[in-house]
Amino acid sequence: MTAWMVKFMDWSKAKTILIIAFIITNLFISIVILNNRPKGEPTLSRDFISNVEQLLEEKNIHIEASIPEEIPYLNSMIVEFERANSHFLNKAYFNNKGRIQQGQGLSEIVKGLESILIINDRLIIYENKNSSNKYPTLNMDKAIEIAQEFLETGEFDTSDMKLTYAKEEKEVFYLEYSKVYEDTFVERAYTNFQIDKRGVKKFERLWLNVKELGDTKIYISTAPKSLLNLLGMKDIYNKTITDISLCYYFEPEKHEYIEEPGEAKQGKAVPAWRVQFEDGYKVFIDEY
């Protein structure tokens, strides 16, 4: 037998050993992953879900949304508040003709009967007290268009915004936009409008930006089990649930700076169930 034939046979044998080693390694990894997955959850059974629906109905809490039936988790997330700049807003909305007044934690821009109040550099409240009717005919589509134009004027990024509630009441259109990150809501960020024939009557914005997304998976209670928390909330009796979604939830009160109470700039957003009702009211349940 020649030397090259011996080498060829040795290489073939080595390849076979390597292939077997790879198969064993992949099998081991698969077993580890499966063993680390949460096991079957009894609160996702059809009987349990039916009992939850019945208990809620007894409190006149109606469900017109699908109840998620998966074991819920989201990766960890660090969020920070979007910062508001009074000089930029004065230029964008008042062509630098507004009068800026500043105090501790407050800035106000005033131009005639219009004003923009900024609280802690993050909450923006615009008000228009003019009485002139710029839009004698107004419908929901036009109101949404007016809101979009207002956002574009202030150079707000609208790619992470979703209109989640809209209604008309006494010729005033109420619009509420929620923040989304890769199709998942990030709460409690909001951009709200009140629009009537004068245009934007009132605008409020408290927004969050995603600073960092971690690799750690955070599991929470299933949706059916979490919905049982609603039974103790009397203010949502006689309401109808229109959406149940897993969301990132940032509660500023849990992330305040000791030296600056009420002025947290960033913090950890945790998974929670976002339960929205027909009238726009929302409940967040972060039960673990």
Computed over alpha carbons, the radius of gyration is 27 Å
Question: Which CATH class of the largest domain is shown?
Answer: Alpha Beta
Number of strands: 14
- Biggest sheet features: 14 strands, mixed
Mean pLDDT: 87
Count of domain modules: 3
**Low-confidence runs of at least 5 consecutive residues:** 2-9, 17-38
Which overall shape is indicated by the principal axes computed on the Cα atoms? globular
Task: Identify the CATH architecture of the largest domain.
Answer: 2-Layer Sandwich
H/E element string? HHEEHEEEEHEEEEEHEEE
CATH homologous superfamily annotation of the largest domain: YycH protein, domain 2
Helix percent reads 25-40%
Distance between the termini: 69 Å
- In percent terms, what proportion of residues is strand? 35-45%
How many helical stretches?
5
What features would you describe in this structure?
Strands 1, 2, 3, 4, 5, 6, 7, 8, 9, 10, 11, 12, 13 and 14 form a 14-stranded mixed sheet that branches. The protein has five helices and 14 strands. The protein is an alpha+beta fold. It has three domains: 37 residues; 110 residues, Lipocalin; 122 residues, TATA-Binding Protein, CATH 3.30.310. A hairpin with a 4-residue loop joins strand 13 and strand 14.
